[in-house]
Amino acid sequence: MPPPKTLHFGMQEILDQCPRFRVLVVGRSGVGKSSLINHAFGVAMKSVSHQERGQCDINVEITSTQNPLFVLHDSMGFEPGQIENFVTAKNFLESRSGKDVALKDRVHAIWLCIQVPVAGKRVFETGDEEFLKLASATQVPIVVVFTQFDKLVNRMEQELTDEEEQMLEEQITELCLQRAVAEFDRACVGPLKRINPKLTGLAGNQYSNPDRDALADLVQTTRNLVERHVEGEVWIVSAMAQRASARVKLNASIEVGMKGYWTGLASNTKFLNKTLEQCLHTVHEDITESWNFYDPKDLLNGSKFLKKIKILAQLVTPDLAEAKSWFENLDDIQGLAGMATTIIAASAVGPAVAAIGLSLWFIKWVANAYNKTPETLRCFMGYIIDLTLVMEQLFLVVLSIRPSRALTEDDIDVALENYKNSEIALVHREIRKYANKATWAEILQSNKAEEKVKELIGRYSVDYEREKSSTP
């Protein structure tokens, strides 16, 4: 088992301030609240409320062992001519907002779920409009989630002319979507803006179950509003709690690192008098914790996974001239990979990585105290970048799994293989290029190694690669 973490950096400070992201979801029964929460936060809750269908107690904290970083409050929507639900929601919101309420106990964001209207029906009732104004007055960020957008698309399909029905299937799909978006802007976005253009902390998102892109937009919108309108670093907790957007997760993980142990990475005084192994384990736990996987067996902090990430990081650690002494089977691995250059220079990929294992030299090296050397910097840069990009791959592996289930070793192995077969060689080459001896004095003086780490994670993330491949 890995040694206990003895260092505490950004992650612990953030969760001490606000251990859970608190969301109030408001909407009538049948509008899709349960499905929305299940998919956005990666939990398998049969109902948002644990009471009878259509009934809920807004004061009850709804939590899930599958995701300990969020807590939910459920409110019924506002029926025409009824004020009881509105008064209850108003009293609750006023009791859970304001500077006199502890940050961890406040409502951090509201999702007001409104079904996309069909056949010319009114989108907002009077209670909805008053609630939007109330939320803005209490400065609680609120996102209007227009649900069941797919029904609007279906309506557009039903209204196609005989001539339009003869078009190619993809042309019909695109035409119906364009018309649905235009109708959505007219019937939903327009009325929302007319309620009060000066309302702050307000946004609107369309959503159909289970539209991953719409979910990703929703959590990104929520995260942006929380950062602008809620004090402290609750927005980081919101990003950690959600399980719908890899990009939001990645950026939160980077932010945690920049806040804590990345600062002054080349000459980090926080690591002094600690062994390299202790430091690596602290980095490991903070990064894995920031991704907030459903991992009841703690596989991500187990000795197997720790070893696998160390194997990747050790490839970029030694100086090229010393690589031969670090890896006794270097020639065999090099031949297996079919590479003309040394495996360390190119960084191992595919089967070559699996053949390496931890070298005795690396095991002895990390048992020593942290010191300011190029090898140490390369090791830490490699460890942080490799682990973060593996976490991104793992998030994409489990994103499609519904209903949510506990993380498995197979999931982790798939993520590792995906990363090994992607850009690891280029990542390690860039690290070596940055942290060579010729620039070591300059690196120590500038103290900006963390910016390079951030740059490389951004450049070699899956999102970046997708954008690059789609650019004409």
Summary tags:
single chain; 472 residues; alpha/beta; six-stranded mixed beta sheet; 53% helix; disordered C terminus; membrane; GTP-bd; P-loop_NTPase; transmembrane helix; coiled coil
What does this molecule look like?
With 472 residues, the chain is α/β, with parallel strands linked by helices. It has a 6-stranded mixed beta sheet with strand order 2-3-1-4-5-6, with helices on both faces. The N terminus and C terminus are likely disordered.
Question: Secondary-structure blueprint of this entry?
Answer:
Layout: H1 10-17, E1 21-27, H2 33-41, E2 62-64, E3 67-76, H3 84-95, E4 109-115, H4 126-137, E5 142-147, H5 149-158, H6 169-195, E6 202-207, H7 212-229, H8 234-241, H9 246-259, H10 276-291, H11 303-314, H12 323-326, H13 330-337, H14 343-346, H15 351-356, H16 360-366, H17 374-399, H18 409-420, H19 424-434, H20 440-446, H21 449-459, H22 462-470
Parallel strand pairs: 1-3, 1-4, 4-5, 5-6
Antiparallel strand pairs: 2-3
Helix pairs in contact: 3-4, 5-6, 7-8, 8-9, 9-10, 9-17, 10-17, 11-17, 17-18, 17-19, 17-21
**Which consecutive residue ranges, at least 5 long each, have pLDDT under 50?**
1-6, 332-351, 467-472
Helix run count: 22
Q: Spell the H/E element sequence.
A: HEHEEHEHEHHEHHHHHHHHHHHHHHHH
Give the rounded overall mean pLDDT.
83
Please identify the structural class as seen in this structure. Answer: alpha/beta
Count of beta strands? 6
Sketch the major β-sheet: 6 strands, mixed
Q: Biggest sheet, strands in spatial order?
A: 2-3-1-4-5-6
Radius of gyration: 25 Å
Q: Report how far apart the termini are.
A: 49 Å
Shape descriptor reads: elongated
Tell me roughly what share of residues is in helical segments: 40-55%
- The percent range for strand residues is 5-15%
Protein name: G domain-containing protein
Domain G: 22-147
InterPro entries: GTP-bd, P-loop_NTPase
Coiled coil: 146-173
